[in-house]
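User: I'm new to structure prediction. If I give you an amino acid sequence, what do you actually give back? Let's try with this one:
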Amino acid sequence: MLTIYPAIFHEEDGTFWAEFPDLEGCQTCGATLEETMALAQEVLGLYIVSLEESKREIPTATDIKKLVAPEGAFITLVSCDIDNYRRKTRSIKKTLSIPEWLNEEAEKRHINFSSVLRNALEQELAK
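Assistant: Good question. You get back a string of structure tokens that encode the predicted 3D arrangement of the chain. For your 127 residues, that looks like this:
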């Protein structure tokens, strides 16, 4: 399902940021316009999926012709394939083996194994 919302793009001090007027708090920023546009698609997908998961109403997109850009900004439509985004971000189960002592210590400290593994993988992939 393709979702399309208008976004307002701003440039300040050589960096860019974007906001979605219909989606409260849905914003992103980047070093370049291209990066900010790509991030706007990501944040739009994340925002809509989070609304769906929490069973909240998804706001109707305002007609772009009814919006007025502030000085120095511009308005454009941003699209996101929500079905594709949902597939990309869906969690999957993985089985792993760790030493028994490590498991016991982690459980004593109420460590979330999934969160630790995800964070470690994200850090490793960012290298």
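You can read the tokens as a compact description of the fold. Here is one thing that stands out. The chain has a mean pLDDT of 92.
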